[in-house]
Write a structure and sequence with these properties.
CATH topology of the largest domain: Arc Repressor Mutant, subunit A
CATH architecture of the largest domain: Orthogonal Bundle
CATH class of the largest domain: Mainly Alpha
Mean pLDDT: 91
Shape: rod-shaped
Number of domains: 2
Number of helices: 10
């Protein structure tokens, strides 16, 4: 005999208790219940049970990705890596990420630009910013666009030298923060003069 849904009860926090033939069967995310069509009087045969399982996996993938986005932006690739580590199959993970992109929660161009701007404000040069964004899984086109949107590297380096002085320590700092030698070439001569003076 195929079990039938006899009760659907909201238990809070987006979760719903499902009763089959008068007994508690499962507590599921509300979205999975709605998408799988569970309602009072619906028979839970094998195809319906498979649909519930598919929707449950989809809801879990969305929840994992959304939790990752609570504190900071992520690239699509870094979220895909997190889902893979959580044993979410590639198709379900891709579907969850596409949903988040449609909602505007995952936007590689926006988040790469925001990350590049934040790093530049902390005195990072283009080489450092590029390496950071690559490590976070951003695509080369998004990285290039993010760096192009910043003030020129030479202008940022000059600003740092104005704040810290044209000293050899400042030049070393610029080099360790990923400024290219080309961007600070003229500043090196100023630092050498400062050391002589």
């Amino acid at each position: 005999m195929i079990p039938v849904v006899t009760g659907v009860r909201d238990v809070g926090k987006g979760r719903v208790a499902i009763e089959l033939d008068g007994s508690l069967w499962r507590v599921l995310p509300a979205a999975a219940v709605v998408r799988s069509g569970l309602n009072v009087g619906v028979a839970v045969d094998r195809p319906r049970a498979r649909r519930v399982r598919t929707e449950l996996r989809r809801s879990e993938a969305l929840a994992i990705a959304a939790r990752s986005l609570r504190f900071r932006d992520h690239s699509r690739q870094s979220l895909a890596d997190r889902l893979s580590r959580s044993r979410v199959d590639a198709a379900t993970g891709d579907e969850a990420l596409s949903t988040l992109e449609r909602l505007g929660l995952v936007d590689d161009n926006r988040s790469a630009s925001a990350r590049a701007k934040a790093l530049a404000e902390r005195d990072a040069g283009d080489l450092f910013i590029r390496a950071d964004l690559e490590q976070r899984g951003y695509k080369p086109a998004d990285i290039a666009a993010a760096i192009d949107a910043l003030d020129p590297e030479t202008a940022r380096a000059e600003h740092i030298v104005e704040q810290r002085g044209a000293r050899p320590q400042t030049i070393r700092r610029l080099l360790t923060k990923g400024f290219s030698p080309d961007a600070i070439e003229g500043l090196i001569a100023d630092a050498e003069l400062h050391e002589l003076g």
